[in-house]
Known about the structure:
Layout (H helix, E strand, L loop, with lengths): L2 H5 L1 E2 L2 H8 L3 H11 L4 E2 L8 E4 H15 L17 H45 L19
Antiparallel strand pairs: 1-3, 2-3
Helix pairs in contact: 2-3
Amino acid sequence: xxxxxxxxxxxxxxxxxxxxxxxxxxxxxxxxxxxxxxxxxxxxxxxxxxxxxxxxxxxxxxxxxxxxxxxxxxxxxxxxxxxxxxxxxxxxxxxxxxxxxxxxxxxxxxxxxxxxxxxxxxxxxxxxxxxxxxxxxxxxxxxxxxxx
Length: 148
């Protein structure tokens, strides 16, 4: 098979569906109901399937002309804008905002760490002095059951 013909081959239902920008089940339905040009290696529905891009493209053109339905219309790829000065300005602005946010997060972590240390010290002091939230010392536990 010539090299350009090999590049034209789609080797699975998934590849065919991706090329047609549809789901696998949709293109399998199209094979049955609309004679989508796919080929099988061997016999039976479980046989490996392949298709040629050029045949699928020709089939799509034919179906779009005769079906009077948008079902066979392939959406055009979205146009991409070249990066201009305004886009570069946006990138710079977003970079600056990102740096500012990272610095704010760093400072917030420092404050949080400091406050957690203070809280830990307060809890330790309370436990050492025997005080608790009600202002009364905790009940002292008596000796456990005597061993016989």
